[in-house]
Amino acid sequence: MKDYDGTEYEDVESLDGFAAVPDAFQRLWTPHRIAYIESGQQPAKDSCPFCVAPSLGDEQALIVARGEHAFVLLNLFPYNSGHLLVCPYRHVSTYDEATDAEVAEIASLTQTAMRVLTATSGASGFNIGMNQGQLAGAGIADHLHQHIVPRWAHDSNFFPIIAGSKALPRLLGDVRAEVAAAWPA
Question: pTM score, two decimals?
Fold first, then answer.
């Protein structure tokens, strides 16, 4: 058989010598992820950051807008500059537990966030979604939140794991101030 780069090798069905046998996979080793896999990153039940945030000042909590049933804040660990989260004030874990009023306001705040991020940063696309439950990848599984991640034509490194880093060209405080100032009253 031939590897992706044309190197010849035998097809190996056993694990004998497996680590030294080239194959078609390019592996990126990320041993630092084992701590997350083994223990997770879920906060203690009594310290939900999305329940605490509304009691803090907007700058401290990175909140850009507050509605009647939900609020919008910057993600503290963003995938891209301007990565926002829309959260209901009420502590519910999944979308089906949200009231009609919460669902409507989450949708409305999401639309406004897209318009504001397009105006302030020139975003040309968005990844929008919710991870429902810890097994589905929710970083904070017990409090519903929707991600709004702005995207641009040349941001090809969406989930980089090389060197465990992501280049974010703007400070969170600067992005929060700009998005909050552009948010319609």
Answer: 0.71
